[in-house]
Each structure stands twice: as structure tokens, then as C-alpha cells.
Amino acid sequence: MKRVIFSSIFIALFSFGFFFSSNLVSAEITHPYTIDEKPQVLFGDSIIISTSTPDQTASSTYQGLENYKQDYVGGYTHFTFTYTHDRCCFAGYPPRIYITDVDPRSTSTPIEKINFLAIDAPSLYWYQPTDWYLIDIQFDSAGFTIIIKQEGINEVWNAHTDVTRLTAKDWVSLTNYYLMSPSTQYSMSFTPVPITDVSPTQTIDPVIIIPGIMGSATKNGKLVIDPILHTYDDLIATLGANGYEEGKDLFTFPYEWRDSNVLTANLLKDKINEIKTTCDCSKVDLVAHSMGGLVAREYIQSGQYQNDVDQVIFLGTPHNGAPKAYLQWEAGEFPPGIREFLNQQIFVSESRRNGYVDIFDYIHNRPILSVQELLPTFDYLKDKNTGLLRIYPNNYPRNTFLENLNNNISTLLNSGVKITNIIGDTGNSTIESILITPSFDLKKWIHGEMSGFELGAGDSTVTYYSSTLDSFVSNEKWGGVSHGDLPRETEARVFNLLTGKIASSVIYLTPIEKIFSIQLQSPIDVVITAPDGKKIGKKFSTGGEYNEIPGAFYSGFNNGDDEYITIPNPLDGEYKIEVQGTGNGGKYGVLTSYISDNFVTITETAGITKPNQITELDTVVNNTNPQNLETERVITSEVLLNDINGAYDLKWIKDAKTRNALVKQVNGAMKFSKKIDIIKERQPDGSIKEKRIERFEIKVNKILSKLFIIELQALFKKKMITQDAFNLIKSDVEYLINN
Predict the structure, then answer these.
(1) Could you give the angle at the alpha carbon of 492 between the alpha carbons of 487 and 496, nearest 5°?
(2) For 421-459, what is each residue's pLDDT tens digit?
């Protein structure tokens, strides 16, 4: 035992006797470093030091700091110990974390990087008599996380501390002292160890990235992982930059998120079998975000499990559901936010295209079971009038999927799979409970109509309670990180957990703050030209595709009726949208949307097309004033006459006589003349070749055109044309008048 004398000690009278205090400096650290570890003891075996008659025999044990252990988790140092104090004297002397650039036993001049009080939790009253605390300190590439559990059960502290200039070659130890007399303190200096594990490199398993709900999209009939919001691009890029290779030991698992997670888990089993054959290996690692974590759990906890998962990393998984799912399940509604606005727009388009009345009808009658399987299994509905919180499951929409999964959680915990559960924390930002009032709607809000929210701790989507898996697994809380940003912000930590190594390169791509979206309602294909001339969409002339706009996604024209384009962080200026008639032609629609975290605007443009007819629509994006977003068709003579004939084909015009009369009146109000432009082009051999280009010019008689609109109104009143025909032809003529 090494005795250290401190001079800055004063005595104060406390309720239990004398309370000795100091400046809370660390125990004396010699250079080179001196170890004075004491014998390992079981909890409670050390001798209490009396403040009145100091017992020198206490120097044989840790006295207040016991059960010290050090190992490596994920390749980084991990400390655990129990800490207890009686009355006054041990509260002021918890251990400190001491980090140097080299083994401090090897030199008298180490660079000291940190000397940090290990359990400096201001919310815990260390000067009060308590039972005992279990302290867990886990290092990572950025610093360390300290978790404190009172009596080893109730978590009372969980915080991460960043350490600047921390490297994989640094060393760390715990130092401690405690009071023996008003002028004498005894030091505890534990054995220093490397920050990272220097044992042989662990075997790296293939890894599968499993996205959350709506984290997959279809490209020409094939599922791909989130090409719209690019939630996983940074993570995949970082793994690739640090040695992983897509298709070899790095895989994604996009899936049909509308289906039940039970079905998806069966598909995950097939994917794992396929990868095991590819890599000739027996196990894989899973990185599962949001609902993807429920897919992973369902597989591991099912009878289908083949003992082929080595470790699973959960990122913001709603282990107990998410209250916002109640809005979608009960009424087909979504809370605000760029992701939610975009999701809502996708649901709107899909419900229309598939013939459902609205989103609610689509969710329940397709059905989209994943929404039901995200409903919470805890108390979250509060009656607004009484302020009483209902007790689940009484008068709640049930989530038997999660109930069964959590009733069987021991299967997961005893599976032998290494589990890391990462939790995002953006403060009190997450819907924790929903205020409800009685509803008189016979279809929606069966369990109560939402009239407001109460927010609590979480990642802005999943509550802290729901994200927490179990006290027996490693739960890591990441302050300031939201649900959608977890894959991006934790990518270095994920790599470390997978490999035990520190990432040499971390990739951060441009975050998406706004999206310009174009969704089609057939029968048309599309190509878009951005203000800078770059294109995305179908090449009408060759049947290929343009893909010139960074980050933009085109679903492809072989995607059935689900054809759309999304452009992240759009430029200011005019976007030219060209649509080409497909199949037999007919009525089409184009939805253009501008979506950001706090704003969404949607415009809908309809028309009629013939096969191969190309119609141009213009949209001007103004990121400063996005509410001015408007989309209008560029009307030509061909478009106007095709709309009249197309309306007749769709029976929007009652008979051929009426159709012919409309064509005649248009010809009278608008004179169409053909012009031929001759362009001379120099050929490779130096000769000049003339190229003839035909174009139409329109001279509009505005008085006759306005009279034509009045005649349209009369035909509509006489039911010779439908409302659709009236709106379409009227808008065409007004465009020609104004342009």
C-alpha cells in the first residue's frame, strides 16, 4: 500500500459525524506509474472505516470499490466494479479514469490525455448513505460510456464522454484514493491496459444491413435499399471504405415492408442461407435499423432459427412499438416531418393507384400488417377529459405480434447472439402518449380520436422506453441523434462492433433537407431535366434511362404502374417534365411535391395522352418560397386537339357531333400554321447538309377563345360533356390565351 499525503483537507461537522472533504484531486500518480492493487473481494467483505478511530487493516482491500474487472468488448476496454459508501467518507473519493499515450509504467514523461472522475453524476447524491452501485465503463473510438445502476438493477446514469485526440494506441487505468485520517489518504492504482484489444484479430463475419419500414423501394421490379432518403448510404460507404466488399461480405436486405414481419423473417432466413453459401461460412452479423430490428428478432426467436447469427446491432428498434403508428392504423394520418410527409405522399399515391378510398382503407384492406405490428404494447392513450392513462391492452388496438415477441424474449437473450442495442436521444421530442377524445366516426378513430400529443424522451420517433431492450444487454445511448440519423451517426461505432477495429475512414454524405418528387398515374413514362440541364428518367428515343442527377431516384418504367422520381435537395429554377403516352394512351395524372421538415406542398396535373405522345410540364422550384410551387402543362395545338379527341374516347364527350363541333370552334378561334425551318449542318467530310424541321405556330383570337369557354360551360350544363372534359379543355384554352 502506498501512502499519499494531501494538504488541502478541511473538517466539517455532518449529521453522522465528521465529513472530510478535499479538492477531489486524483490519487498521487507516480512516473513511472506504480500499481497498488489490493486483493479481490466479494461485495461487502471490506471493513468499514470509522471516522473516529481509523482502522488501518482496511488498507488490505479496496474499501468501497470492489469486484473490479477489466475485459474487452468490441475490441475496446471495458471496466466494471461495484461502489459503495457508508455515512460520509467514501462519497467524495470515487475512482478516476486516467488515459496516457503510452503504458505509463514505461516512462517518466507520459502524455496525460485525461484524468476524469469516473462517476461524476451530479444527479446522484454521493454524500448520502446508500446501498451500492454497479459501474460499467465501455470505451469506443470516440471516448467512453458510463452506465450506473443502483443495486445493479435500476439505471440512474447513462452518458457518453468524447475524448479529443483519443487513439487506438492509448492506455487507460483507474486510480482511486480514500481517507484514512484527516491528513492521510491511501491510493489505489489499478493496472493500466491498452484502450484497444491487442489480442489476435477476430474473425469478421459477413454483415447484412436490414432497413426499417419504408426503407426499401422497387427499381424496375427489383427491391433496393432506401434510394430516396439514402438513410443507409453513409453506413454502407464507411464499411466499404474500411475493407468490406458488397456482394462478398457486405449485403443489404431490402424487403416488402408492407407485409408482416413474420413473413419477412422467413425471407431473411433464406437470405442468410444464400450468403452462407456465398462465403462458405456458418454465421453472419446483422445491423438492423428501426422495424428491421423486429425482423431480426422474429427470425432469431422463431423456430426457423438456424443458429447462424453471431451478433446483432439494433439501431433505434421499437422493441415495444411506436405511438405514432396509432395515427396511421386508426385514421391513416401522419405526424409532421420530411420523412413522414414523404411517407404520406407514397401512401396517397399507392392507395389511389390501387383503387382504395383513402390511406386508411389501403392500410386495413390491403392490409399493411407492418403498421399494425408497430403499435405500442405499453400504456400510451390518455383520455383528454379525465387525464387518465389507459392500461394496455384494455380499449387499445392490439399488437399481438410484439406481445408474442416480448413474451418470448428469453429466447433472444439465451440464443448466444452478441447483442448491442443503440438508442438515439433527442431530448423530450418523441410522442410518448396521445390525448384522445370520443369519436363519432363509424370507421376511423375506433379507440379514440387524437386531439394532441405529450412528448417524452426518445429519438423523435421511438421512445426511450421502447428503444431499450433489456438490462442484461449492452444498451448505448447516443445523445443528440435522431431516429433517421442513427445509421449515419453510429457508422464508426458499428464498424468497431463488427470488427473490433477503429475505422480509418468515415464517410459523411450530404444530408437530405428537402425533396422534389414527381409521381405518375399511368399511362405515361417520364423524363425530367433539371435547371442545370442534367436529366433523370426514361430515354424515349432508345428505351434506356438517364441517371445524371446525384442522389435522385427513378423507379424505372418497368415498375408496373408505380413510376416516380425523387430529387433530393433540388436546385432553384425550372424543372422540365416530359411525359410520353404508353400502351393505348388515356387519362393520366402527375403529382409534384416539395417536401421539407416543416413544409409540404402538392400539386396535381391531369391530362389525356395518345400512345407515344410527348407532353411537357414545367415546374419552378424556389427553395426560399416553396409554397409557390406550381406545375402546368405546356399546351400545343397537338395537345389541345388530342385532349378533345381523347375526351371523346373516354366518353367524357357525349357524341361525335359534339366532339366535331368543339374541334371546329377551336380551329376558328386558333389558327394553326405549319412552319418549316431549314438548319444547315456541317458533315465530317466538310460538306453542308440541310435539315428540315417542322413546327406549328398558333395565332390565338382571344375574343373567340373566351366565347369558346362560354360555349363549353353551356355544353356542360346540357350534360353533353362531363366535368372532367370541361376542366381539361378549359385549362388548355386558358393556357393558350395567356401564353
Answers:
(1) 115
(2) 999 999 999 999 999 999 999 899 999 999 999 999 999
Burial of 391 (0-12, 13-18, 19+ CB in 10 A): exposed
Q: Provide the CB-side half-sphere exposure for 469 (13 A, CA).
A: 27
3-state SS assignment for residue 542: coil
SS3 for 396?
coil
Exposed / middle / buried, residue 521 (Cβ in 10 Å: 0-12, 13-18, 19+): middle
The DSSP line for 660-722 is HHHHHHHHHHEEEEEEEEEEEEE-TTS-EEEEEEEEEEEEE-HHHHHHHHHHHHHHHHTTSB-
Q: Which residue has the cell 397537338?
A: 638
Round to whole Å and give the CA distance between 662 and 667: 9
Q: Residue 520 phi/psi, 5° resolution?
A: -105, 145
DSSP 8-state class, residue 505 = -
Q: Residue 643 in 3-state DSSP?
A: helix
Triad 594, 595, 596: Cα angle to 5°? 130
**563 within 8 A of 555, measured Cβ to Cβ:** yes
- Nearest-angstrom CA–CA distance, 237 and 211: 15
**Structure confidence by residue, pLDDT tens digits, 358-381:** 999 999 999 999 999 999 999 999
List Cα–Cα distances, 638 to 585, 645, 663, in angstroms. 15, 11, 12
**Cis peptide, bond prior to residue 367, ω within 30 of zero:** yes
d(CA 658, CA 468): 68
CA atoms within 13 A on the CB side of 724: 19
Closest to 457 measured CA to CA, from 481, 429, 433: 429
**Section 476-480 average pLDDT:** 91
Give the H or E element holding residue 659. Answer: helix 656-669
Residue pair 615/594 in contact by the 8 Å Cβ criterion = no
CA–CA dist 637, 613 (Å, integer): 12
**3-state SS track over 82-108:** EEECCCCCCCCCCCEEEEECCCCCCCC
Place of cell 446508500: 130
What is the rounded CA–CA span in Å between residue 594 and residue 625? 11
Give the whole-angstrom CA distance, residue 221 versus residue 242.
31
Tell me, yes or no, if the pTM score tops 0.90.
no
DSSP 302: S
Burial class of residue 141, CB neighbours in 10 A (0-12, 13-18, 19+): buried
Q: Which residue has the cell 443495486?
A: 151
- Judge contact between 632 and 618, C-beta under 8 A: yes
H/E stretch holding 527 reads strand 524-529
Q: Is the dihedral of CA 269, 273, 276, 282 positive or negative?
A: positive
- Among 108-117, 648-657, 719-728, the minimum mean pLDDT is found in 108-117
User: Helices 723-738 and 702-717, interaxial angle, to 10°?
Assistant: 170
Distance CA 545, CA 526 (A): 10
Phi, psi at 503, each rounded to 5°: -65, 130
